[in-house]
Design a protein that fits this description.
The chain has helices at 33-43, 48-57, 61-80, and strands at residues 21-29, 87-96, 100-105, 111-116, 119-127. By secondary structure, it is of the alpha+beta class. It is elongated and about 65 Å long.
């Protein structure tokens, strides 16, 4: 059943809480997790403008992948009504995805297994916590 009156979900009523963070996930990205983790470690905890500048100047291919995910998280935050100017990268982590297995023929009837690794890239942006 769809609720037509959105005021029903105002902050403070019935336990609803205004969003304070937004996330973006790229599943099954075609790169090993260890390569992407090197880039993700550079931007964790940084302001989004600084993080985008770091990724734009990083020569690794993984930087292009992480940059896409970060831009998607920023767009999600804007859609949720968060203040884009004060966003930081709260969390950024990379998990291993499924490994595609291929067979490469070798000499004398042997075969070697080729593992094409994938990863899941997750970036969470949010407002800086006031302390």
């Amino acid at each position: 059943m769809a609720v037509e009156n959105r005021d029903y979900y105002r902050e403070g009523e019935r336990g609803f809480k205004a969003p304070d963070e937004a996330r973006a996930i790229w599943r099954k990205a075609r790169m090993s997790a260890s390569k992407v983790r090197l880039v993700v470690d550079l931007i964790r905890g940084k302001h989004i403008e600084e993080a985008l500048a770091i990724l734009a100047n990083c020569p690794r291919k993984a930087a292009r992948l992480v940059e896409k995910v970060l831009k998607s998280a920023i767009a999600n935050a804007e859609q949720k009504g968060l203040d884009v100017d004060s966003l930081i990268v709260k969390k950024a982590y990379v998990d291993e995805g499924p490994t595609m297995k291929r067979v490469k023929p070798r000499a004398m009837g042997r075969a070697n297994m080729i593992r094409r690794r994938t990863c899941h890239i997750t970036v969470v942006v949010g407002n800086k916590e006031s302390k």
